[in-house]
Amino acid sequence: MKKLALLSLVASTALFAQAAFAEPTCTKEPKDKWMTELDAQKKIVGEMGYVIYKFKESEGACYEIYGMGTKEGGAAGEMEKVEIYFNPVDLSIAEKKKD
Question: CA 7 → CA 12, 15, 20, 45, 75, distances in Å?
Answer without folding.
Answer: 9, 12, 20, 48, 51
